[in-house]
Design a protein that fits this description.
The chain is α+β, with helices and mostly antiparallel strands. The protein is 18% helix and 21% strand. The structure holds iron/sulfur cluster.
């Protein structure tokens, strides 16, 4: 599905001009301007090239073409039209475009979108667990990353709402993966400790969200939208059906909510254990005993506690075990 802000237009431009500027070609063109009339014969750019060419109604160097532009951008820029289904604007990839998100969903309260045959009704609420959104169209890794596979096979990967809540804010995001087939790896620096987030299945990466290098807070403030980490697609011939290889071993559908409940309880248990074991400085980082996931719990832990937390919840080797 292409972006609703992507517009097609007819444009014209001069082929021999040093600077190629596309101009809207309107049906109301009168044909009286120089390029579209016999007056092209006086154009200094055309004159040296006209020798031997027959006289025509309009300049032979005036090129008519199709272009597209983004209606959400503050400056209109025409680019040659492309049907490249792997371009963000021509695919479901637009759902992760910062401009699209700002214009289409300014409050960030995205409702679940179409999943298979399920078309959500207006007003449908996002499923959540303890205040953590669990979008139903996504698949989740046991180490708290999500995967979105569009019908055309375009994939996006990020950290899930649980990880975003627990981390609270990261100081730095770096990407250890190049544009090749491999397991996407992002390095997050949280409270001075490096956390490696590894997506377990190989993807053919086309981009990393480099914007997060300057604005790492987006990753946790909008983890399912502008805070995505990687964009790519399944390696050719990877699975029998679109997404089957990328989703291998991931948690989705009704299991995702039950798993998130179990993870929330596991975190509560972890927090209680940390309360019972004060830090070497004698501090107890919290004692509210609540059952909900605590926002930014990572910021309250000492270095060892933080490493324990990362190992328990975000280690790449975690596998999904049904425990309910
Ligand atoms: S740049 Fe973004 S908002 Fe604009 S057309 Fe492309 S996907 Fe849509």
């Amino acid at each position: 599905m292409k972006c609703p802000f992507l517009r097609d237009v007819n444009v014209k431009y001069c082929e021999v001009s040093a600077y190629r500027k596309m101009i809207l070609s309107a049906s109301t063109d009168t044909g009286t301007e120089r390029c579209s009339s016999h007056n092209y014969a006086q154009c200094p750019a055309a004159v040296p090239r006209l020798q031997g060419l027959p006289r025509t109604e309009r300049c032979p160097f005036l090129h008519l073409s199709q272009a597209e532009f983004c209606a959400a951008a503050s400056v209109t820029k025409y680019v040659p039209a492309t049907n490249d289904l792997l371009s963000r604007c021509n695919s479901d990839g637009h759902l992760y475009c910062e401009l699209f998100l700002t214009r289409a969903d300014p409050t960030g309260a995205r409702r679940p979108r179409t999943v298979g045959t399920h078309v959500p009704a207006v007003g449908d609420r996002m499923p959540s667990v303890e205040g953590i959104p669990v979008p139903p169209q996504l698949s989740y890794t046991p180490n708290h990353m999500w995967l979105d596979v569009a019908e055309d096979g375009f994939c996006h990967v990020g950290i899930d709402g649980f990880a975003a809540k627990v981390i609270g804010s990261a100081e730095k995001v770096t990407f250890a993966t190049s544009r090749a087939v491999g397991r996407p790896v992002a390095m997050l620096t949280v409270n001075g400790v490096d956390l490696q987030m590894v997506f377990p299945n190989p993807l053919h990466l086309s981009a990393a969200n480099l914007y997060l290098r300057t604005a790492p807070s987006k990753m946790t403030s909008d983890p399912y939208g502008a805070g995505w980490l990687f964009e790519g697609f399944e390696p050719t011939g990877a699975g029998a059906t679109v997404g089957s290889a990328a989703r291998e071993g991931l948690i989705s559908g009704e299991h995702a909510l039950a798993w998130m409940h179990a993870e929330s309880e596991r975190l509560t248990q972890f927090v209680h254990e940390q309360v019972a074991a004060p830090s070497p400085a004698g501090e107890q980082f919290m004692a509210d005993g609540g059952g909900a996931v605590i926002d930014g719990v990572a910021a309250h832990l000492d270095r060892q506690g933080l490493i324990n937390l990362m190992t328990a919840f975000f280690a790449p080797q975690l596998t999904w075990r049904r425990s309910w």
